[in-house]
Amino acid sequence: MANVFQELATWFHQVFVKQFDAWVLLGFVAQFFFSMRFVVQWIASEKAKRSVVPIAFWFFSLGGGGLLLVYAIQRQDPVFIAGQALGLFIYIRNLWLIANERKAAMSKVD
């Protein structure tokens, strides 16, 4: 059993300590922003007592997804690159739709 813990400790050191550099830090920051979108969505839904997707969700998605795409490109991971690139298109499109909706609402007020 002690051998299993030693191997796990060695693996943990190899993955989380030995490889740590500015790119890994960027990856963690990007993942934090990407994860914050769910926290923002959850808090907004709890306040409204229904499922809500606030605009901040899309901005955190765009920021985190953009940084994760940079990280994926640097790591040369084709699956991660494709997934994040497609996500960016979706986040931008949702922000565009929200902006058009707000613009239309403002023109009705004038």
Automatic annotation (TrEMBL):
Descriptive protein name: Lipid A biosynthesis N-terminal domain-containing protein
Gene Ontology cellular component list: membrane
GO biological process: lipid A biosynthetic process
InterPro entries, alphabetized: Lipid_A_biosynth_N, UCP028440_lipidA_biosyn
Domain Lipid A biosynthesis N-terminal positions: 26-97
Pfam families per UniProt: LAB_N
Signal peptide positions on this chain: none
GO MF annotation, one: lipid-A-disaccharide synthase activity
Annotated TM spans: 20-40, 52-73, 79-99
Acetylation found in the keyword field: no
The species this protein was found in: Mesorhizobium helmanticense
Keywords from the named record: Membrane, Transmembrane, Transmembrane helix
Keyword Zinc-finger applies: no
